[in-house]
Amino acid sequence: MIHIKNMYFSYGQSSYILKNLNFSIQDGSYISILGENGSGKSTFIKLLLNLLIPTSGHIENTFTRTAYVPQRFESLNTQFPITIEEILTCYQKARHIPGKKIIDDSLSLVKMQDYKKALVGTLSGGQCQKIFIARALMGNPDLLILDEPSNGVDIKSQNEIYQLIKNLNQEKKITVICVEHNLKAAIKNSTLLYHIAQGVGHICNPQNYIREYLIENTGVENYVSI
Amino acid sequence: MFQYNFMQNAFMIAILISILCPLIGMFLVLKRYSMMGDTLSHASFAGVAAGLMVHIHPILSAFCLTSIFGVLIEILRRHFKNYAELILVVILSLSVGIAITLISSGLVHANIDSFLFGSILTVTREDFYIVLLLSILSLIIISRLYHSLMFMIFDEEGAKISGINIKFINYTFAVLVAATISVSIRIVGILVISSLIALPIATALQLRKGFKTTLLFGILFSFIDIISGITISYWIDAAPGGVIAIMSVFVLAFVLFFQNHHFPFNIHLLNFKNMAKINNMTANEKRDSDGRRKFRIQSIFKPAWHQKYQTTKFTFETSQSEQRTINSGYSISKSAPRR
């Protein structure tokens, strides 16, 4: 469980990027974090990952094995000479995860076992994302944080990835926090949406969010079937 | 030529350098920091000049000053986050400034040319022992940090989240670069050391292999460069640094040329197994009228110039993990490129 209480954050002396966040994440939930570019979503994730420290307020995190799947495709160097097996081995060594078959097992979970010896640059966007999910699953995490998992991925692969994340959430009871621009996927999969706008966050349930979103953007309140 | 002690020493040092330089170079090149080698080699120039001035062994003094400058680069890098290359210019200017001032003021009473261009004749057994000690220490540290370094260079944020101490590794690595440069200046020379750090890796990268294999090929190319360079420099009586640099570029050009042309030893075959696996899983797989599976691999498997038909048999795993052997003559000869 994560409890965030009266949390403020700013970089240095600049104005607050996140203001007075109060939020609880229950075990086993699937939370999508929505918001426009520059709204503070990535900063929020970095705070959850302990890469940044809140300016005031506090975060209480009871999850012990947090895994992170970064937003990947723009920064990934496709010429980097590294095989999938080597990517996973690095992670295994860094996290001191025991087990000789752990790499094969995690690749099997995402159905990518045939790509163990492939170079990272030869994979498509969707395959690449699956590999990073497989990497995150190696330490048997209890919290999985994903940053825009559908970014740069075709529709078919998007469906596969979201199905995989949903299965992990429902069958393995892994708590999922997902930064999203994909509204459809967020509403379809999440148990809760957390919307951050100009540093202020509020919780909304998926169906209400559609209504609010429609009113805000079109002025029409209408039911949309997803 | 091996009857001479200096040649024995030179070759023993050369073997150590041919392992160390690509090991460090692999991480530097992939970090997009190849010019750090050049900057620190100039720092070692100042170290050699200082060592000769105060009568300390020049390799040791070069190691000390290069380590200090290496750590200084890492410290300054945090202040000039978006202008990392600017720091290299600052340190390079400072190093060359110190070296030229010491030499031109007449405080150094020794021949510094052998350090600038490399020299076989002046290599002593004492040099070898110092190089051996620094090399063993460096190899132990690299083997301990190998996976952390690889992770950090591929995905720095991920490495940080996974608990890798990025700062410690960066500082340690700076000292390792310093050690590698210090041990190499005797043979290769200050002016061309960066060629031995970057070029064998640049050559190995053309083969498009995994990290470990690229590193091993880098060591192999480095070995070829340095051994052929020293041998040729012995016979033509030239400074080894220059010949090694020329050989490095020549080997790179050789691999680049034959990577894109037909050649008796088909370099493309090195990638064959993985590519076949990938093709097997994608839309490139087709079935013919008899229901037999065919794989589109003509773009990878180029016939050698002296071959009319591919008679090579190759094996790869299918998605069901079964082993299949395909006679390439059947499926490839139709789609072999025209000549």
UniProtKB/TrEMBL annotation, chain A:
Tell me if Heme is a UniProt keyword of this record: no
Which residue stretches, if any, does this entry annotate as coiled coil? none
Key words, A-Z: ATP-binding, Nucleotide-binding, Transport
Q: Where would I find the ABC transporter domain in this sequence?
A: 2-223
Q: Which InterPro entries match?
A: AAA+_ATPase (IPR003593), ABC_transporter-like_ATP-bd (IPR003439), ABC_transporter-like_CS (IPR017871), Metal_Ion_Import_ABC (IPR050153), P-loop_NTPase (IPR027417)
A molecular function GO annotation: ATP hydrolysis activity
Protein family: Belongs to the ABC transporter superfamily.
Report what the protein is called.
Zinc transport system ATP-binding protein
Q: Which organism is it from?
A: Propionispira arboris
From TrEMBL, chain B:
Could you tell me which SUPFAM superfamilies the record lists for this protein? ABC transporter involved in vitamin B12 uptake, BtuC
GO CC annotation: what is one? ATP-binding cassette (ABC) transporter complex
Which spans are transmembrane here? 12-30, 50-73, 85-108, 128-147, 168-185, 191-207, 214-236, 242-258
Task: State any GO BP term from the record.
Answer: transmembrane transport
Annotated protein name in UniProt: Zinc transport system permease protein
Q: Which UniProt keywords apply?
A: Membrane, Transmembrane, Transmembrane helix, Transport
Task: List the membrane topology term(s).
Answer: Multi-pass membrane protein
| Claim: Glycosyltransferase is one of the keywords in the record | no
**What family does the entry list?**
Belongs to the ABC-3 integral membrane protein family.
Per the record's keyword annotation, is Transmembrane helix included, yes or no? yes
Report the subcellular localization: Cell membrane; Membrane
The cross-references to CDD domains, in alphabetical order and at most eight, read:
TM_ABC_iron-siderophores_like
